[in-house]
Amino acid sequence: MRSLGLVITFALAACGSAPVEQDKTPLDPVMTEALEGQLMVDPDLSQQNMRNLAIVPGGPIDPALPLPDPKS
Fold first, then answer.
1. pLDDT tens column, 27-50
2. Are 38 and 44 in contact (CB under 8 A)?
3. Which of 9, 14, 32, 39 could form a disulfide with 26 if both were Cys (CB 3.0 to 4.6 A apart)?
4. Cα separations (Å) of 30 from 19, 22, 27, 35, 45?
5. How many whole angstroms from its chain centre is CA 71?
6. What is the Cα–Cα distance from 57 to 6, expressed in whole angstroms?
7. Whole-angstrom Cα distance, residue 11 to residue 5?
8. Distance (Å, rounded) from C-alpha 50 to C-alpha 58?
9. Cβ(50)–Cβ(57) below 8 Å
10. pLDDT tens, residue by residue, 3-24
11. CA distance readout (Å), 11 to 4, 6, 23, 29
12. Over the chain, what HEC string results?
């Protein structure tokens, strides 16, 4: 019974069609450029990242939320 299952499996595998070759032209050139294109970096924004600084530079710090009132 197992040999019959193997024979049927190999027979079905042999019935497959030849692999379809795809042309190299992209279907959506805008999406391809967005995924594979070079990233652009704004130098002004890249200087604002202070995550790995050992000290906080002088000057005003602009918090996202207002600081809590120490009197309350």
1. 888 888 888 877 777 766 666 666
2. no
3. 32
4. 28, 19, 9, 9, 26
5. 47
6. 72
7. 10
8. 12
9. yes
10. 888 888 888 777 777 777 767 7
11. 10, 8, 30, 41
12. CHHHHHHHHHHHHHCCCCCCCCCCCCCCHHHHHHHHCCCCCCHHHHCCCCCCCCCCCCCCCCCCCCCCCCCC
| Domain residue ranges in the chain | 1-52
- Contact assessment for residue 12 and residue 18, using Cβ atoms and an 8 Å cutoff: no
Q: pTM of this prediction?
A: 0.26
Rounded distance between C-alpha atoms, residue 44 and residue 35, angstroms: 24
User: Residues 55, 61: contact at Cβ < 8 Å?
Assistant: no
